[in-house]
């Protein structure tokens, strides 16, 4: 059976391995990334800056036109931002890329199955409800953890047909935005303790081939998590969905559909 699979962040790391593997299996794979050099040898590459809301919407429209029925949406795109960067819409980059693009792709493509690859099960970090754009006291780790917790709630918002997946420390990850000493330290740690990419993506193949019965499945490094975790609270998910829509409107980016 040929499936239509959209992969955000499919030009590098786990996403790229997934794109190439599914294409070899005969699936129709649409790959999203921002770097055209990396996109040269992946299937149906679409260049898009997923931290830009308008660009993300443009690519959603392009996909909908040609592939109106998406079987699986696999969400990998992320990038570390050591300093606070604002996008064209005035949003903090990590929030926009790591969380908001995933929100928009899920909502816009309406796939049968979504696999959101992030850090479910992690309880560190928090959502700064009164300062979602981290205008005060920004740090890279704070931004990553906040967007990670938002992605946990996104699973609750956009279920059924949703898998939240924390793959564990993996020998992937574009480290170029990081300072040199940190890059070196992570590379050494990954060599010693990181798992191979193939191992990290293995369960995703199973979910695509045999979609889970549960409306929402949360798997942290091989362990199925209970859904009553504080990080998956439905009231918080509703609050985030509401705040996200307000934000899209007030950023002047909402469009009537
Ligand atoms: N690696 C780990 O140990 C680990 C552990 C737990 C969770 N995770 C999570 O797993 C996911 C995948 O990780 P990975 O290590 O495979 O990442 P990676 O190798 O760094 O790949 C990131 C992907 O995101 C894309 N991307 C970044 N910025 C973009 C933008 N503005 N617009 C469009 N695409 C953009 C990159 O493509 P371009 O360069 O073409 O833009 C690339 O394809 C991430 O969400 C990560 O947080 C990773």
From TrEMBL:
It comes from Paractinoplanes globisporus. It comes from the Bacteria. This is SDR family NAD(P)-dependent oxidoreductase. InterPro entries: NAD(P)-bd_dom_sf. SUPFAM superfamilies: NAD(P)-binding Rossmann-fold domains.
